[in-house]
Write a structure and sequence with these properties.
Radius of gyration: 17 Å
Number of helices: 1
Number of strands: 15
Order of helices and strands: EEEEEEEEEEEHEEEE
Distance between the termini: 53 Å
CATH class: Mainly Beta
Largest sheet: 9 strands, antiparallel
Number of domains: 1
Helix content: under 10%
Length: about 200
């Protein structure tokens, strides 16, 4: 008998009586910290708001951290799941964020650098979840790290408004899939965008 359940757009299927080792194990981890920073208010912290703003002009970028080790065990896929409040044809880019940062202290002036490699979200719809396969980025995370920190940027001059963890049920999640084989996601794209 085939049993199916869905959560935030993901379908999970398993065959009753089948070996647990054969089926993928899926875990959705809520954000441990998140914030956005703004180039027009370089020393202002936006870590307690219920939204994350990403914009190219003025430059605004979002940071999200998850307390999970994506290098332990048999991780086969990692997806970033974010709720968008606005639609955007350009969407956003997901990058690895380097160095540690604190939700209540991060500003544009002290924000960590982010990787030149990124994974593009593609167009996003308003009031909808968007899943982005960030496996190629998490492959670059150190094996000893017990967290994953991501930076969200965009090339669009029209801001993208995303829900932060303070929004409650619509907060960002990292969906970690273990076992079940690996299909492989798209390779990350490289850009020479300057860091703040």
């Amino acid at each position: 008998m085939l049993v199916a359940s869905t959560a935030a757009g993901f379908a999970v299927q398993s065959l009753l009586g089948a070996s647990v080792d054969c089926a993928p194990r899926i875990r959705a981890v809520r954000a441990q910290a998140d914030a956005f920073v703004s180039g027009t208010m370089r020393t202002t912290n936006f870590g307690r708001l219920d939204n994350l703003r990403v914009d190219a002009a003025p430059r605004q970028r979002a940071y999200v951290r998850f307390g999970v080790n994506v290098k332990s065990g048999d991780v086969t896929r990692v997806n970033l799941l974010v709720w968008s409040r606005t639609r955007s044809h350009a969407g956003y880019q997901v990058r690895l964020a380097y160095d540690r940062w604190r939700e209540g202290r991060i500003t544009y002036a002290n924000a960590p650098d982010s990787s030149p490699d990124f994974v593009a979200s593609g167009p996003v719809r308003a009031r909808a979840w968007k899943a982005v396969d960030v496996t190629p980025l998490t492959d670059q995370v150190s094996g000893g790290d017990n967290s994953v920190s991501l930076a969200l940027t965009t090339t669009s001059a029209k801001s993208v408004d995303l829900a932060s963890r303070e929004s409650g049920l619509h907060g960002p999640r990292l969906v970690v899939v273990r076992g079940g084989g690996r299909e492989g996601g798209p390779p990350p794209t490289t850009t020479e965008e300057a860091s703040p």
